[in-house]
Amino acid sequence: MIRSLRARHFVFLVVIALCATSANVxxxxxxxxxxSTSSPRPSPEQSPRSLGGKxxxxxxxxTDGEHxxxxxxxxxxxxxxxxxxxxxxxxxxxxxxLDVDPGEAELAARVATLLVRNDDFPQxxxxxxxxxxxxxxxxxxxxxxxxxxxxxxNKTDQAIDYANRAIALEPxxxxxxxxxxxxxxxxxxxxxxxxxxxxxxxxQTDDANFWTRLGKLYxxxxxxxxxxxxxxxxxxxxALFKRAAEHANDDxxxxxxxxxxxxxxxxxxxAIPLYLRVLELQPDDASAQEKLASGFVLTNQRAxxxxxxxxxxxxxxxKYQPYDLLAQVLDDQARTLERENKKDEAKPIFAQAxxxxxQSLLINPSHVNTYVRLADLLIGPLKDPNRAVNFLSxxxxxxxxxxxxxxxxxxxxxxxxxxxxxxxxxxxxxHEAELDGSEMANARFYFDYGATAEQAGxxxxxxxLFKQSISLDPANAAxxxxxxxxxxxxxxxxxxxxEDAIKHALELDxxxxxxxxxxxxxxxxxxxxxxxxxxxxxxxxxxxxDDPVVFEHLGDTYSKLDRIAQALDVWQRAxxxxxxxxxxxxxxxxxxxxxSKSEGKRNPFH
Length: 606
Description:
The protein is mostly helical. It has a domain at about 1-200: Alpha Horseshoe (Serine Threonine Protein Phosphatase 5, Tetratricopeptide repeat). It has 31 helices and no strands. The longest helix is centred in the first third of the chain and has 26 residues, at about 1-25. Mean pLDDT is about 85; it is low at about 1-65.
């Protein structure tokens, strides 16, 4: 669509030019050539901005009407050829344009870029030098020549000369200083690279982008792996980003780049206010939120982050963003403790995170992502699915047609022991995702849906959903294979297919204790109790923590092999882990009775 619009735009220009030609011929007047005072300046190593979106000013103003019309027609043809990947035809058409006006710097640079891609460096250089002769005030051809001589011809001196000539023409063009810096770095001369940046730092400009890019280049020299930067060097980089902030004029993209620098250099006190300002300008900028939270985590300064955010909340309790960010940091802190098996320490921090998310929603209830994050906490670590169901139901009314909320509501309903209701909600989520064009219905979605259908007793539907999950991401389908196989083993059906599915899971993760338990349980169902025992013993050795289900399976297998004492031992271990399991308690009682009767028969006088 965009391409067709561009083509129509240029055809329209050609028609206008042809009309102007007719008028000029009738009036017998010549249009004097005109030269633009400046030329665009994209980075030389990158393709100049698409020529399909703007006709060069020189091409519109420089030539006679008749020549101009032909040049425009050639330009349109060249752009079309280039978009279709027909480089040779594009070059032929573009060169005809340059024959009319060789000083069109942007087009010359584009032609040079295409020639360089074909390794035709001599012609690329000729085109650029012709452009310089026709338009000596344009800096772009010099910059392009500098790039070619440095990268492809290894002629550093000539490359430096061209870069310096570009700087002389446009001293406020940061591309030129960056080119000079990169040439010196490639040549291994870091001192001269720094000198190039020092030249740039003396430029008088209010361009925030200039100072941001210069700051980034200085930062590369200052912050090196395994080295502590000197305070004076850090202060110099900070000064450049401070100038960028002074001239940013509330540009969120610039402010975010400055904040990224401060966060990456562990200057969180400076980064936080900038990220918060970005979020005031762009409330839905999830990237800014995530970068701030991840910045705290990556620099391992969660405690400091919490203190700073709490201080900001105390000063500005009416702003929702600090609550949201505080919740993210607390959430990450708690999950780290959980991974370290410090669950008692993690739980109150999870609760604090949830409370902070709730406060954020009280101030500004218009953010879907905050509902999703809170739901994830309530369903997972805090294990409060009923509360999640209540607030997600409210969120869904507030945001009709948001498939992510419906998805989480379905999971919450399942965890709240309402699997039939959850199945219906999953189906609604799938329908909403299809209407919304969302990519939410991925392998994980179908796995969760399948697990819910299994809990609802819809085993055939569950099998179909697990198979769909596997087909969408077979390389990461171990859980789906295992769940499918274990479900069939539990139902004592499709045992051959169940064994095959679990084997696939074990191929992907050979030492997974849960998968080994599933494999052992299939063998148990097949009546192969010795094989089952071997697999279940391996399962207990490979589990990261004791699992009552695995111990129960192992006890059942010992019982089938008439090893009652061992069965009692592992059943009792299982009951300690799951004291509410009445079926397990009954097995233990029956086994004790059996042992007692057996001993009575052996010793009738006891």
